[in-house]
Design a protein that fits this description.
eight-stranded mixed β-sheet, alpha/beta, globular, 287 residues
């Protein structure tokens, strides 16, 4: 079995535990707490230590889960993904795919730590009604970094990374921009302030020719293309920190977005395994 085949099998197993066994990951369902317990166990390969960044929201204690890997003393590169879902869905692509990729990356880095500091974060409460409020997990995380006097080198946020399709749609302004017609690539989105991080991330991704990658830099922090703000990278943009979103383009490709049909049977695990390879290349690129 090749490394990619082994990673694909690992991703499928984690998706089964997170999406099929736990299912809806909300405070109301109890699935959010179950997902946190699963991740606390799964994020501890090798000698990794998980820090639980707990706070109260919607009458319950919730938590971001944080793992530091590599040397300390410099600004860390953040790689994160949210683990909650909207009600009524197991959230396979949104955002189980990204969480499983994050777990696979953690295992790789535990075996061979990067030369620079990397901070992996499983964010809680990205979905509505927490989105863009003080209860959003990534906003809590950013506030805690500010309180500690820290600033990241940048943040790579994984948002829906497991769906491929024969056809790819685009919002109006991008329809004539020359992007591919097939939905078999991964996208990296930045604002203008994050262009250097975009270039570094894309350079790392292109070390893996098995996964096509497309990039987009938006003006005005996405104000004229609001769909590109719909994830945790916006929490970093809003405090003027560099961040990029890595995505399969969400509802521009995946018709199961926020529906009960967003199930693991729709995921492309080989595509996700290739993304793990690309991410590993990217986090090993010196900043």
């Amino acid at each position: 079995m090749t490394q990619r085949e082994a990673t694909s099998a690992e991703l499928r197993a984690d998706a089964g535990s997170l999406c099929r066994d736990i299912g809806e990951r909300t405070v109301r369902s109890g699935g959010l707490a179950a997902a946190e317990a699963f991740l606390l166990h799964a994020l501890q390969p090798g000698n990794l230590t998980v820090q639980r960044q707990a706070y109260r929201a919607f009458g319950a204690e919730v938590a971001n889960l944080v793992v530091d890997i590599g040397p300390s003393g410099a600004a860390p590169l953040i790689v994160g993904a949210h683990y909650d879902t909207v009600p009524g869905t197991e959230g396979a692509d949104d955002n189980g795919s990204a969480v499983c990729v994050l777990l696979a990356l953690a295992r790789r880095l535990a075996q061979r730590p990067p030369s620079g500091p990397v901070r992996l974060v499983a964010f809680t409460l990205e979905e509505a009604p927490a989105f863009a409020t003080g209860n959003q997990g990534s906003r809590v995380f950013v506030r805690e970094m500010e309180r500690a006097g820290e600033r990241p080198r940048g943040a790579i946020v994984l948002e829906m990374v497991g769906y491929t399709a024969p056809e790819q749609a685009y919002p109006g302004p991008l329809r004539l921009a020359g992007y591919p017609s097939r939905g078999d690539f991964i996208g990296i989105v930045s604002n203008r302030r994050s262009r250097r991080l975009l270039q570094e991330t894309a350079s790392g991704f292109r070390r893996n020719p098995a996964l096509p990658v497309e990039t987009l830099t938006v003006p005005l922090d996405g104000a004229i293309l609001p769909a590109v703000r719909l994830s945790d990278h916006a929490s970093f943009w809003d405090v003027r920190w560099p961040a990029v979103m890595v995505t399969d383009t969400a509802f521009f490709r995946n018709p199961h977005y926020h529906l009960p049909s967003d199930r693991i049977e729709t995921l492309d695990f080989d595509f996700m395994a290739r993304l793990v390879d690309s991410l590993e290349c990217a986090v090993r690129v010196p900043g």
